[in-house]
């Protein structure tokens, strides 16, 4: 957004990120960069089998290896470390918890399950000694496909969960049976949302420093939520929270995978507790692929009921959601609350029902991955709408138009029970279609088809739930914590400002955007504000950075705190200028008596006078500082419309992504350059799912895509320029109207690109291909139709 | 047996390492000389996060044993001293998000010829992965910085 007033507002301006200088010079410090005197190095022995009974675990030779300080197994840790808690216990789902031990005992349940740890003077020595641990296993049958895991013959992972069903959750609204009984058209599809590897470029890492004499632990951790780590670490290790300091230093990407509480973290803490020395553990990349959580992994059977003219009347589906071998921190909430409740998307769907089976499989635990549940819902809807459009012979854009919820600015109740905050879905769709000239694109497509070329156009509209969320709702849906955020604004006597936040940004730029909020609210220079985050010892409690909630919730906390500062400044100005507080006005950093703007106090004057406290009104406390714990009244619901244009080469199956246009509405943008970066990155991650990425397990449960040589994240030369546009629909309940943008791109882009490819292949009668749409998959899908042609 | 000392030049300073000969250059830089700006992303030469310049050419420092570094000139991100035009352009145009791939990305870009074509950039950065930015900001920044070079 460009400023429309003469004085450019700092809110809304694309100022440079203050995070960047340290990142660009190599001075930023990530967890693996932490080096402490006397530090030793941990390496984990991990199961090579997907399912096996441990028959022998002899560490005696490893203990004798050069440099080795200690070797521990579950026999050592189990008296100290409790199982890792799952923190999202979705109610009404018959949840079957099973112990998730930091080191596996007796049975291993996925390739990568940790069974022992070696601590040595150097990391090389630790890895060398791993090879000297004599581990023997009796292998057991394994299953990695979530649907197959629920079938009769499937091996069972946990005695607590017969048939491997970890939970069964149902969402329903309206009379879905009646909708299908009376449907003029029903379309069906099986959709596989393949398992993905989040692939933060920084692998997971922990440095634990326990000081026996004080009983205090400092844990540097590559996490998205240090305060949750402190809480969970206290539960697992028994170290009281007041003796436990968690520092998330610079964190090299998370995308959901650094929400989870990891066995390796607690084992590293255990080693430091036992040895009284600092211990560092950093995953290798192949270890990261085995042991850091994965994403998605849904098998979905979907049916959509509609009228002949394209009015949707019902949606019915069954989802088998792979959970992996154990329930990770937030995992049960993802295919349920964050997926099922968003099933009606931006459309008026009068009736729906979804059965979700969370299923244990012999695979790495699944956790949030950028979008977390919402891409799986959006894809389902957008896919089915295109299928409906093809069935009834109406343009897919027209089917969307027919069903989109009309614009609203203060609440809309949907069939799943949610109340969306504000939306103008038609507006976003109009904008993206006008930008690409949709009619011209269709005409070009027709022309190319006559030349035997296969151009495809994908259009999708989406709405997502973010800004998680009211704590009361968090409690009602089984989240074992709150979902508010906190901010402290502290003015120093010189007028410089520190902001301390409980959220924990790691690449999203809130050190900059939050300074912009303070500058905008209080008239200080943006460079006079420093934002502090990531250290539980000097920041207020907060629930973390995920679910596009940092600006949506933490930003609201900050706005409220700045307004408390402003209120105090008004009081003090009134006292100093001998006027009633009602007569004090504020503009651009100046407080003055109504009508006499030349007699004023600046916020810097107020900061000094409040801090020296020589002359305060009766009852006013010294200092200029405010704290806010902000619990939002509702979630926020960003939305948008995206278009992708592809050309498919039938001879090779190659998909050429020629154009991608995103229109996203996250409300007012604090820093459009940062918003654009979030959209770019998000869109590309979603494209990765559509075209290239898949975590592949073989029948025995070996992860075949176990390295960056095998798992194909997007590379620069495969991508067109992503064109980023926006509309602005403020959230009615957020103090700044902002909604959140971190996940939008990923939520929309997978289905947009997929629909474009299927659209391209329509003349060849191909209506579904399993993702990712690699050249091989596309080529294979084309073979029957070509043979028949 | 004490390994033979390896002498080389790092960021213009002559240094000696007595690390075991198969120690990765990456680990010597980070562990011995505290040059932690060079990052490890995969340890197998796929991601480029550990890119440094060896005698001016980009090299994955995770794949090179220190024994092969005798007499060479190594330049790491710290050696740019924050003054390279690429660093300014990355700030200006959104080239960094989480920052972990950034030092390697910049070192790979430093090695590009001046006024590179898009194809030159794609070839020169083919070995550098970024999961945050979608590469758009990175390419814009490189284009801007190399235009003025």
Q: What would you report as the Rg of chain A, rounded to the nearest angstrom?
A: 27 Å
The count of domains of chain B is 2
* Corresponding CATH superfamily of the largest domain in chain B: Beta-grasp domain
Number of strands of chain A: 28
Q: Give the largest chain-chain interface (CB within 8 Å).
A: A-B, 57 and 55 residues
User: Which parts of chain A are unreliable, with pLDDT below 50 for 5 consecutive residues or more?
Assistant: 1-6
Structural class of chain A: alpha+beta
The best one-word shape of chain B is: elongated
What string gives the helices and strands of chain B in order? EEHEEEHHHH
Instruction: Specify the CATH architecture of the domain at 137-403 in chain A.
Output: 2-Layer Sandwich
What about the largest sheet of chain B?
A: 5 strands, mixed
**What is the CATH homology-level superfamily of the domain at 137-403 in chain A?**
Aldehyde oxidase/xanthine dehydrogenase, molybdopterin binding domain
């Amino acid at each position: 957004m460009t400023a429309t007033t003469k004085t450019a507002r700092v809110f809304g301006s694309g100022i440079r990120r203050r995070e960047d200088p340290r990142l660009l010079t190599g001075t930023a410090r990530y967890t693996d960069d932490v080096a402490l005197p006397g530090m030793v190095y941990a390496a984990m022995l991990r199961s090579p089998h997907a399912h096996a009974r441990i028959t022998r675990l002899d560490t005696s030779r490893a203990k004798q290896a050069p440099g080795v300080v200690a070797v521990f197994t579950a026999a050592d840790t189990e008296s100290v470390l409790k199982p890792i808690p799952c923190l999202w216990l979705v109610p009404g789902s018959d949840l079957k918890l099973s112990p998730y031990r930091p080191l596996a005992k007796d049975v291993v349940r996925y390739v990568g399950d940790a069974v022992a740890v070696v601590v040595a003077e150097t990391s090389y020595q630790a890895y060398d000694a791993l090879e000297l641990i004599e581990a023997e296993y009796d292998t057991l049958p394994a299953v990695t496909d979530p649907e197959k895991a629920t079938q009769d013959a499937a091996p069972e992972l946990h005695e607590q969960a017969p048939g491997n069903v970890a939970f069964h959750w149902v969402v329903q609204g309206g009379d879905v049976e009646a909708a299908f009984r009376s449907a003029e058209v029903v379309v069906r599809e099986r959709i596989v949302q393949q398992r993905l590897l989040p692939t933060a470029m920084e692998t997971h890492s922990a440095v634990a420093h326990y000081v026996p004499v004080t009983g205090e632990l400092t844990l540097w951790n590559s996490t998205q939520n240090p305060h949750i780590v402190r809480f969970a670490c206290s539960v697992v290790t028994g170290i009281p929270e007041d003796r436990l300091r968690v520092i998330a230093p610079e964190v090299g990407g998370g995308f959901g995978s650094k929400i989870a509480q990891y066995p390796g973290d607690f084992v590293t803490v255990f080693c430091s507790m036992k040895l009284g020395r600092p211990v560092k553990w950093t995953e290798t990349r192949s270890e990261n692929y085995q042991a850091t959580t994965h994403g998605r992994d849904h098998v979905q059977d979907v049916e959509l009921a509609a009228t002949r003219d394209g009015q949707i009347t019902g949606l019915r589906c069954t989802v088998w959601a792979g959970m992996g071998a154990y329930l990770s921190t937030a995992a049960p909430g993802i295919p349920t609350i964050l997926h099922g409740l968003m099933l009606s998307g931006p459309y008026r769907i009068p009736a729906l029902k979804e059965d979700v089976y969370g299923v244990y499989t012999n695979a790495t635990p699944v956790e949030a991955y950028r979008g977390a549940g919402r891409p799986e819902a959006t894809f389902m809807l957008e896919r089915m709408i295109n299928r409906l459009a093809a069935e009834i012979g109406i343009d897919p854009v027209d089917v969307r138009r027919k069903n989109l919820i009309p614009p609203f600015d203060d609440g809309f109740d949907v069939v799943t029970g949610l109340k969306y905050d504000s939306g103008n879905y038609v507006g976003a769709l109009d904008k993206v279609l006008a930008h690409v000239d949709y009619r011209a694109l269709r005409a070009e497509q027709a022309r190319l088809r006559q030349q035997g070329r296969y151009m495809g156009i994908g259009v999708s509209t989406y709405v997502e739930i973010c800004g998680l969320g009211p704590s009361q709702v968090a409690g009602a849906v089984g989240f074992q914590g709150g979902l508010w955020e906190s901010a402290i604004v502290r003015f120093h006597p010189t007028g410089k400002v520190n902001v301390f936040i409980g959220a924990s940004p790691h690449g999203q730029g809130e050190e900059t955007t939050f300074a912009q909020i303070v500058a905008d609210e209080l008239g200080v220079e943006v460079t006079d504000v420093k934002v502090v985050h990531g250290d539980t010892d000097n920041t207020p409690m907060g629930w973390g950075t995920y679910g596009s909630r940092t600006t949506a919730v933490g930003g609201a906390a900050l706005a409220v705190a700045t307004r408390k500062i402003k209120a105090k400044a008004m009081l003090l100005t009134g006292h100093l200028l001998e006027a009633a507080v009602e007569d004090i006005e504020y503009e651009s950093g100046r407080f003055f008596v109504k009508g006499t703007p030349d007699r004023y106090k600046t916020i810097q004057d107020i900061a000094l006078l409040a801090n020296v406290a020589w002359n305060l009104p009766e009852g006013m406390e010294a200092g200029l500082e405010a704290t806010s714990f902000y619990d939002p009244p509702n979630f926020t619901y960003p939305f948008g419309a995206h278009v992708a244009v592809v050309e498919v080469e039938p001879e090779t199956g190659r998909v050429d992504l020629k154009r991608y246009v995103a229109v996203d509405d996250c409300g007012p943008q604090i820093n459009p350059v940062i918003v654009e970066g979030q959209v770019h990155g998000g869109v590309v991650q979603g494209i990765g799912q559509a075209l290239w990425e898949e975590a592949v397990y073989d029948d025995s449960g070996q992860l075949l895509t176990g390295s960056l040589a095998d798992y194909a994240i997007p590379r620069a030369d495969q991508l067109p320029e992503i064109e980023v546009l926006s509309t602005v629909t403020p959230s009615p309940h957020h103090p700044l109207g902002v909604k959140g943008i971190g996940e939008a791109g990923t939520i929309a882009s997978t289905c947009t690109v997929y629909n474009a490819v299927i659209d391209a292949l329509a003349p060849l009668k191909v209506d579904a291909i399993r993702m990712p749409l690699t050249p091989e998959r596309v080529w294979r899908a084309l073979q029957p139709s070509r043979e028949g042609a | 047996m004490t390994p033979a000392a390896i002498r080389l030049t790092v960021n213009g300073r002559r240094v000696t390492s007595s690390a075991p000969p198969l120690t990765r250059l990456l680990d010597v830089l980070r562990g011995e000389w505290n040059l932690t700006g060079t990052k490890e992303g995969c340890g197998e030469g796929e991601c480029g996060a550990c890119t440094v310049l060896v005698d001016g050419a980009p090299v994955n420092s995770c794949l090179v044993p220190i024994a092969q570094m005798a007499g060479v000139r190594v330049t790491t991100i710290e050696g740019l001293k924050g003054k390279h035009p690429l660093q300014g352009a990355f700030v200006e145009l959104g080239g960094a998000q989480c920052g972990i791939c950034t030092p390697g990305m910049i070192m790979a870009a430093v090695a590009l010829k001046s006024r590179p074509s898009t194809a030159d950039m794609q070839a020169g950065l083919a070995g550098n992965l970024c999961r945050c930015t979608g590469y758009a900001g990175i390419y814009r920044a490189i284009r801007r910085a190399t235009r003025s070079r």
